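Task 17 of the worksheet. Students: predict the tertiary structure of the chain below and write it out as structure tokens. Keep your answer in the requested format; marks are given for formatting as well as content.
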Amino acid sequence: MKTVIKLEEVGLFILGIYLFSLLDYQWWWFLVLILAPDFSMLGYTFNNKTGAFIYNIFHHRGIAVLIYLTGCYLKLASLQLVGVILFSHSAMDRMFGYGLKYEQGFKYTHLGEIGK
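Model answer:
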């Protein structure tokens, strides 16, 4: 993956950290929850198609932003937290080259094949 794209993801991760800092949660919540979206990989225990679908739902930045904005509109800090965690996790994954998944298998992503 090109350096420019990785730097963009670093910037988005920093934005996620900033948005978290605006919430009234202690920092350990961020550290504990930042890997929670990876539980979506359990979908791969069924098959690749189900795994990719569930994984992509939990790693889609558009969904994360929608959840965050809904939390802002409804003034629900817990919903804002979910949105920030999903957004930040997605940026972190993409910094390391893990993108949204294709149905062929876990290692096939929109950023290229993992491990190549």
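Marker's comment: The mean pLDDT is 93. The helical segments are 3-21, 27-33, 48-58, 61-74, 77-95.
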